[in-house]
Amino acid sequence: MTAPSTDPSPAVGTETPAASSASSASFVALRVLAVRGLSVRFTMRDGRHVAAVDDVTFDLAAGECLALVGESGCGKSVLASALLGLLPANARTAGSAVVDGVELLGAGERTLARTVRGRRIGLVPQSPAAHLTPVRTVGAQLAETVRALTGLRGTDARDAALTAAARAAFPAGHLDRYPHELSGGLAQRAATAIALVGDAPLLLADEPTTGLDRELVDHTADELRRHADEGHAILLITHDLAAAARTADRVAVMYAGRIVEIASAEAFFGSLGPRHPYARGLLNALPEREFAPIPGLPPELGDLPAGCAFAPRCPRADDACTVLPRLAGGVACHHPEDRHA
Amino acid sequence: MLELRDITAGYDRREPVVRGASLTVAPGEAVGLLGPSGCGKSTLAKVAALLHRPAAGQVVIDGEPVNGWRHAAPRTLRTAVGVVFQQPRLSADPRLRLRELIAEPLRAVGRSRAEAAARALETAEAVGLTGELLGRRPHEVSDGQLQRACLARALVLRPSWLVCDEMTAMLDASTTAALVNVVEDYRREHRAGLLAVGHDRVLLDRWCDRTVEWSRIAQA
């Protein structure tokens, strides 16, 4: 399976210098997304700065799903907005994010609109019913997307719309329905169908399961997994650890704007467990585990402690933690859980 | 006892969404109500919270039938039941600072500004909100922080009953466990009854004394 792409150039070999310098250790064959040192800083009205995303680095390959998890307000959604070029005007970015050969950071609106959104990145939104236009049928919205992204007209456009609907398992008989006539599950599939039209190699799913009941969560997770297996790279942004466990190949845990752990889903959710104390705490808070909250609240992004941002809530914190821990060996912690007991 | 007796409820003249639902919560008891999306459980939760008049059936609190419904029950009765909904951004008035949000029910029942402020501060601390956070408005805090404020608002009148309708559906695992702990501490201290409505069986089994399936308490 090759990465689907509307671009004739291959998905590999079109790296920027920033990306290639860090890629020597990586043997990923079809890298779709390369994020290097990505930071997003907001300047507030009173002149303060808020570092919502700080020095984030990761890769994502075709056929792979990476779940980005963390508490509300940890910077997950800001990262998504940065990739789509949807940050507000008071945001400044640094670093690099290359998707399928295109540098996203600092790209102009024209580039983003014509080459990125829908074409290189398909967005699976948080609340599909709110994402779809209420006054037009699903079929009309799909057809509009087909016309805008592929330039196809008439029968060809209709065929492309039907194909996208089929790939998202949206029943063709329901294309003449309006969003409010759909169940939550079908609305999610309709939104996914629209995200699939442009054959974007990267699907960005921002909290796709929030507020859905367990059956629909499982279903949505399984659909995302299927799209990964069909060759899409999927960045799943979620606070739902069960959905992440069901879908992801790898898990990245964000805390206060930084990735504090990145691990295979097997190790993370399996008997080995996470290595970062925050990630362990998050997993232990699940009702099927200890159901014990992590004490305290996440820090204010505009007022981070020096050193490790988790230290004030961490049972293992000591003097060493006043120095910011670097992400090394998949974990950014001075006292990670030892895997070799 | 908080008793829902043979409740039928709906909207306007359309088909009722709840038919013949009966459920009892004893003082100090935590009851979880499980059901899929769209089954009518939120409507029943609103009836239990005395915010939605049933088309038929009765709500009975400690042996006294609730009367005098308009759209909702009279305010003097409603103070007995605290309620927290799923989406804090829809529940919270965006213009109020968190401390005003939490104190508002006290002001509404005629407490003095000073007493309301003091009690609000106390309740805010119990849900883990302190200091400068309380001076912020909803758009300046995270979903988790805002839901903490909504829970504080529900507890500030010290109700005998609490209705939590998918209170944690938008929240991460740690904030979920933290808010459940706050509810449980409150219930222990005040021997309050709880109706927790949701779809997460693992959560409700862990949280509640007993859980009931929607299909067991209401007609299809």
Q: Can you tag this structure with a few keywords?
A:
heterodimer, A: 341 residues, alpha/beta, Rossmann fold, six-stranded mixed beta sheet, four-stranded antiparallel beta sheet, 11 helices, 30% helix, B: 220 residues, five-stranded parallel beta sheet, 9 helices, 38% helix, globular
What does this structure look like?
The complex is a heterodimer of chains A (about 350) and B (about 220). Chain A is built from eleven helices and ten strands. In chain A, helix 5 (about 140-150) crosses helix 6 (about 155-165), helix 6 crosses helix 7 (about 185-195) and helix 8 runs parallel beside helix 9 (about 240-245). In chain A, strands 6-7-8-3-9-10 form a six-stranded mixed sheet, sandwiched between helices. Chain A has two domains: about 1-65 and about 75-110 and about 245-340, Rossmann fold (3-Layer(aba) Sandwich); about 120-200, no CATH class. Chain A has helices at about 15-20, 75-85, 110-115, 130, 140-150, 155-165, 185-195, 215-230, 240-245, 265-270, 275-285, and strands spanning about 30-45, 50-60, 65-70, 90-100, 100-105, 120-125, 200-205, 235-240, 250-255, 260-265. The model of chain A is unreliable at about 1-30 (pLDDT under 50). With about 350 residues, chain A is α/β, with parallel strands linked by helices. Helix content of chain A is about 30%, strand content about 20%. Chain A is globular and about 70 Å long. The two termini of chain A are about 40 Å apart. Chain B is an alpha/beta fold. Chain B has a domain at about 1-80 and about 160-215: P-loop containing nucleotide triphosphate hydrolases (Rossmann fold). In chain B, about 40% of the residues lie in helices and about 20% in strands. Chain B is built from nine helices and nine strands. Chain B has helices at about 40-50, 75-80, 90, 100-110, 115-125, 145-155, 175-190, 200-205, 215, and strands spanning about 1-10, 20-25, 30-35, 55-60, 65, 80-85, 160-165, 195-200, 210-215. Chain B has a five-stranded parallel sheet, sandwiched between helices. Chain B has a four-stranded antiparallel sheet with strand order 2-1-4-5. In chain B, helix 4 packs parallel to helix 6, helix 5 (about 115-125) crosses helix 6 (about 145-155) and helix 6 packs parallel to helix 7. Chain B is globular and about 50 Å long. In chain B, about 50% of the residues are buried. The mean pLDDT of chain B is about 95. The interface of A and B includes residues 211, 282, 283, 285 and 297 of A.
